[in-house]
């Protein structure tokens, strides 16, 4: 019966081994379960804290700048401080900084941020998405915010950080036209001249343009080649040329700041950085100076999608 005793001894050892392994595994899973319960409880408490009907506020969020805008997200997960460059939004190109803290007032790093400009009364946003760059320490720079017209705008900010996602709306009820580029709202005349070659206002210059893209595109940066001549066809060389773009029916200008970048010779000039942000009636106005002569020329465009 020796073999029988040895069999039971070995079986007893295996049983003890299995029991010890089970206890180790159970201990590990119990620890994981405790962590999961604690995390779930934190989420539930956060939801309870934000379930009131009034605006949610946290005194413990830090505001860094006196002239900044500050809001807490809808669920109370994040505090968002907005620092607008030049302290005001205007038509054209804008930029701003966002400083984001979590519910514990810690810097939010590595988050997915989207900023959506929106006109609630008009029911539309913008053509170009703002560009967002993380700078570290909870700071995010938002550039290329192109507001195409004056009026009531919202900046809708959405923040996603791991499993937490929340949003907030910053309201700008009266965005005004950039004072440096005043544009008046005007209806298009019935006899609109859409020619690509025109005489200047005082008939000093004959000017034509050719776009690098045909037809002239919407929402794409492109170039024009401008040809400046005298009315009898002689090339005007060495001219100083400035320009501005306008959308008269909407009261705003170009989202970019195009300029003459090269004198190509023989009266031809390269204009770069032109971008039309939406379909409709656009006006391009060029000021031309050559020696003691100066005049303006205008081109009308009706752009379609």
Description of the molecule:
- This protein is of the alpha+beta class and 305 residues long.
- It has one helix and 17 strands.
- It has one helix spanning 2-49, and strands at residues 69-72, 78-84, 92-102, 112-118, 131-136, 139-147, 151-161, 164-175, 197-199, 206-211, 222-229, 240-247, 252-253, 259-265, 268-274, 280-290, 293-303.
- The chain has a five-stranded antiparallel beta sheet, with no helix packed on it. Strands 9-10-11-15-14 form a five-stranded antiparallel beta sheet, with no helix packed on it.
- The radius of gyration is 32 Å and the shape is elongated.
Count of beta strands: 17
Please write the string of helix (H) and strand (E) elements: HEEEEEEEEEEEEEEEEE
How far apart the termini lie comes to: 96 Å
Biggest pleated-sheet summary: 5 strands, antiparallel
Ranges where pLDDT stays below 50 over 5 or more residues in a row are 2-8, 41-58
The outline comes out as elongated
Which range does the strand content fall in? 35-45%
User: Would you tell me the structural class of the helices and strands?
Assistant: alpha+beta
> Treating each run of at least 4 consecutive H or I residues as one helix, how many helices?
1
The average pLDDT value, as a whole number, equals 82
Largest sheet, spatial ordering of strands: 1-2-3-6-5
Radius of gyration: 32 Å
Helical residues, percent: 10-25%
């Amino acid at each position: 019966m020796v073999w029988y005793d040895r069999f039971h001894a070995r079986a007893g050892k295996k049983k003890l081994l299995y029991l010890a392994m089970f206890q180790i595994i159970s201990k590990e899973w119990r620890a994981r379960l405790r962590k999961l319960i604690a995390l779930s409880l934190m989420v539930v408490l956060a939801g309870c804290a934000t379930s009131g009907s009034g605006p949610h506020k946290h005194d413990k969020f830090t505001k860094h700048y006196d002239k900044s805008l500050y809001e807490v997200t809808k669920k109370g997960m994040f505090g968002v401080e907005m620092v607008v460059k030049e302290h005001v939004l205007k038509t054209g190109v804008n930029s701003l900084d966002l400083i984001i803290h979590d519910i514990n007032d810690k810097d939010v790093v590595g988050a997915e941020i989207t900023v959506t400009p929106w006109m609630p009364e008009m029911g539309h946003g913008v053509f170009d998405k703002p560009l967002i760059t993380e700078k570290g320490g909870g700071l995010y720079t938002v550039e290329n915010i192109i507001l195409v017209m004056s009026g009531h705008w919202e900046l809708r900010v959405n923040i996603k950080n791991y499993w937490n996602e929340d949003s907030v709306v910053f309201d700008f009820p009266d965005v005004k036209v950039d004072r440096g580029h005043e544009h008046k709202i005007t209806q298009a005349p019935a006899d609109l001249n859409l020619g690509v070659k025109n005489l200047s206002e005082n008939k000093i210059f004959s000017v034509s343009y050719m776009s690098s893209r045909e037809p002239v595109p919407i929402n794409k940066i492109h170039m024009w080649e401008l040809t400046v001549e005298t009315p009898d066809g002689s090339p005007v060389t060495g001219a100083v040329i400035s320009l501005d773009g306008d959308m008269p029916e909407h009261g705003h200008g170009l989202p970019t700041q195009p300029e003459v970048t090269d004198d190509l010779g023989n009266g031809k000039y390269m204009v770069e950085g032109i971008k039309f942000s939406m379909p409709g009636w656009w006006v391009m106005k060029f000021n031309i100076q050559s020696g003691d002569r100066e005049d303006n020329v205008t081109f009308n465009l009706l752009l379609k999608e």
